[in-house]
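Entry 14. Ran structure prediction on the chain below.
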Amino acid sequence: MFYLLIILLQMKLIRQITDLNKAIHKENDLGFVPTMGGLHKGHEFLIKVSQKICKKTLVSIFVNPTQFNNKDDYKTYPRDLSKDLKILKKLKVDFVYLPTVNQIYKNKRLPRITLKKSQKILCARSRKGHFEGVLDVLNRFVKLISPKMIFMGEKDFQQYFLVKNFISQNYKIKVYPCKTIRDKNGMALSSRNILLNRTNLKTAGLIANKLLKLKFSLLKKNSLNNVNAKKSKKLIQKSKKMLINKFNIKIEYLECRNLMTLTTNTKNKPFKLFIAYYLNNVRLIDNF
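Output, structure tokens:
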């Protein structure tokens, strides 16, 4: 309790919308980093980029229930507010917003957000309502905060892609992408990593390195002609079977997508390799 009081004296901790309005109504160069807590080095990188570009930075911690298609996933999502606040204090964040569910969803009159059929790919295909929930909550945050820029990580590339398009169509706000921060073993940092044991973490690192090698192989085969495109698909299927058998994981998807459009048209185009898989019943995503 005493430590929490010290934190409050050094950064603005905001719980009420009225206090939020008072704190930021004059800020016209505000960077916004939306999080669900469980902060790690990836979040720290986002915050540091915001602090470098914008005059002030606001970080939100809100585990949004509407983006979870699995109730158990929502209940077990890593939460450690005391630890998160220590990290934010060390980073000298200007504002930390901790809203309740009732505050965020008090206004139920906002237009319902739906994805187009072409957008229901990758995570959107299996996590029904997930990105609709993400876009809806960010829409609500933007209306409350009116930031100049929003900072998001490329580890959740599909999320960044959808948010960037939605925000650019509705607001004069830039969504700034930040590179994926990885552990020494190569795995992408994620709040869910805390749910993995030491063996799982080692396995995730090995999987990440296998996927990176696959990406290099695909770069060599991609683009020249249709024969190479077929070879790339076969290579992905072969790699998928290998990963499943070698590491005893369940793969939800493993596929290449156009970097600019997220379509499957990757011929002569920059692309990313996307994966979602379950390791010890923990769902992990990554892209290369």
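Residues 2-7, 223-227 have pLDDT under 50 and may be disordered. Will compare against last week's run tomorrow.
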